[in-house]
Write a structure and sequence with these properties.
The protein is an alpha/beta fold. The chain has two domains: 33-69 and 327-461, Lyase, Ornithine Decarboxylase, Chain A, domain 1 (Beta Barrel); 71-323, Alanine racemase (TIM Barrel), CATH 3.20.20.10. It has helices spanning 55-62, 71-84, 100-108, 118-126, 143-152, 162-175, 214-224, 245-265, 291-309, 363-367, 457-461; strands spanning 40-42, 48-50, 53-54, 66-70, 89-93, 112-115, 134-136, 156-159, 179-186, 208-209, 228-235, 271-276, 315-319, 329-344, 347-354, 374-375, 384-390, 399-407, 415-419, 440-444, 447-452. The strands form three sheets. Strands 4, 14, 15, 16, 17, 18, 19, 20 and 21 form a nine-stranded mixed beta sheet that branches. An eight-stranded parallel β-barrel has the order 5-6-7-8-9-11-12-13, surrounded by seven helices. Helix 5 (143-152) packs across helix 6, helix 7 (214-224) packs across helix 8 and helix 8 packs parallel to helix 9. The longest helix is centred in the middle third of the chain and has 21 residues, at 245-265. The protein is globular and about 70 Å long. Residues 1-14 and 193-201 have low confidence and may be disordered.
């Protein structure tokens, strides 16, 4: 199993402007199956279709740019995770992409939902997610957010600090209720991921340290509080993770903590959430494991460690992260300009500018994350040239796809499709340069439905109190 680092390859090597992992394709028009949603492909005319609709017909109906979700692909992935982890609770990551319809899909497919703000909680409830299947995350939940979670009856609040414990106790006393909580712990495991999305090493903002003893103190305090019901431990080691290696150490340390807690209190905690953040394929070198493979690996790890500590296997939870919505989404853009740029030593790069940019996908600029792209409205008639897909914003770092081979005849008016755009694209979008955010549409059996409409200048000006 291989994969690239999520931070990607920012600089070229000495002999080629392309990163070492990117090779010229034998067929510049081929769609690599692992990168695209299950119902994406080229039709006989050479145009990309998604769930029965050509990209040109999508743009004609809803405009450009647009995020497209293959609904059946999304639902199938949700089902695959639920079935692979039968007996465990699977929680969808609301932060990856959430709207009312997606919340309804999640509820219909029997998954739980992680939220970390009042806004996400509101959408989850509006979409019909049972409160008992909602987990409330966040390292700095306000009193108002905690109150909303308690009043809604969320199934678990993942506690992240001693101040939060105090805040919860005060609210529970006021509301005459008891909060079901899990303690977020940091295990000291550094997942092979980007620094900003590795969440279990010691020097970061999330959770109570196991190694420093703060986690056990928080657990004992919660256990003895009349206002809290301690369910168990929550751990998360990062995002865009491709195998179960890091979870072995995380499971050992969290289960050891459960054993220590049992020794100290006589109580064996019944729940453990190992997090997840499993990776998806953004480029041809990414080879993520299947839910079935990951489930087998995690079950084996947990059972082995429980035997070693003399514990019963607790009720387990897992959080696939982007692995459900990421591959189900495609971003479609219209080309505005194309120009070759001499980068020295007799080498050049083709810059393909489109009608979106870092405002609708910040990950390439924020993490130097790598993506793939294809000429979508037709097949290219010429061979591959190294290209960079860039946006319209007034920033040199406004890059959507850092390195990709596109046909030499890409021209203004063509459509570019970027796969694996369902997660952390629209959810992290902004209005930089006062650009309205694109819509999100779902397609099922050739029918388009709007999940989030396109923003307009009226939307932006409605917030401007100046005039």
């Amino acid at each position: 199993m291989t994969h690239m680092h999520v931070a990607g390859s920012i600089h070229a090597d000495a002999t080629s402007p392309a990163p070492q992992w990117l090779m010229p394709p034998d067929d510049v028009n081929a769609l690599v199956a692992g990168l695209w949603s299950k119902h994406a492909g080229r039709n006989e005319a050479g145009e990309v279709e998604i769930a029965g609709r050509t990209v040109s017909s999508i743009i004609a109906e809803v405009g450009s740019p647009v995020y497209v979700i293959d609904e059946d692909d999304f639902r199938t992935r949700a089902r695959d995770w639920r079935e692979a982890f039968s007996g465990w609770q699977v929680f969808y990551a609301g932060k990856s992409f959430l709207c009312t319809t997606v919340a309804r899909w999640i509820a219909e497919e029997g998954l739980g939902l992680d939220v970390c703000t009042s806004g996400e909680l509101t959408v989850a409830l509006r979409g019909g997610v049972p409160p008992a299947l909602i987990g409330m995350h966040g390292n700095n939940k306000s009193a108002e957010e905690l109150r909303e979670a308690l009043e809604a009856g969320v199934g678990r609040i993942i506690v992240d600090s001693s101040h939060e414990i105090t805040r919860l106790e005060q609210l529970c006393a006021e509301l005459d209720t008891v909060a079901d909580v899990m303690i977020r712990v940091t295990t000291g495991v550094e997942a092979h991921t980007h620094e900003y999305i590795a969440t279990a090493h010691e020097d970061q903002k999330f959770g109570f340290s196991i190694l420093g003893g703060a986690a056990l103190v928080a657990m004992v305090r919660s256990q003895h509080s009349p206002f809290l019901r301690l369910l168990g431990i929550h751990s998360h080691i990062g995002s865009q993770i491709f195998d179960t290696g890091g979870f072995e150490v995380a499971a050992r340390r969290t289960l050891k903590l459960i054993a220590q807690f049992k020794e100290a209190t006589g109580v064996e905690l019944e729940e453990l959430d190992l997090g997840g953040g499993f990776g998806i394929a953004y480029t041809t070198v990414d080879t993520p494991a299947t839910p079935t493979e990951l489930a087998a690996g995690l079950r084996s790890i947990v059972e082995h460690e429980c035997r070693g500590f003399g514990l019963q296997v607790p009720r387990m939870s897992v959080e696939p992260g982007r692995a459900i919505c990421g591959p189900a989404g495609t971003a479609i853009y219209t080309v505005g300009t194309v120009k070759p740029v001499d980068i020295g030593s007799g080498m050049s790069r083709r810059y393909v500018s489109v009608d979106g940019g870092m405002s609708d996908n910040i990950r390439a600029a924020l993490y130097a994350a790598e993506y793939s792209a294809t000429l979508a409205n037709r097949e290219g008639r010429m061979g591959p040239v190294l290209s960079r897909v860039v946006g319209k914003h007034c920033e040199g770092g406004d890059i959507l796809v850092r390195d990709e081979f596109l046909p030499d005849d890409v021209a203004p008016g063509d459509l570019i499709a970027i796969p694996a755009a369902g997660a952390y694209s629209r959810s992290m979008a902004s209005n930089y340069n006062h650009v309205p955010r694109p819509p999100v549409v779902a397609i099922a059996d050739g029918r388009i439905s709007t999940l989030l409409r396109r923003e307009t200048m009226d939307d932006l000006l409605a917030l401007d109190a100046g005039a």
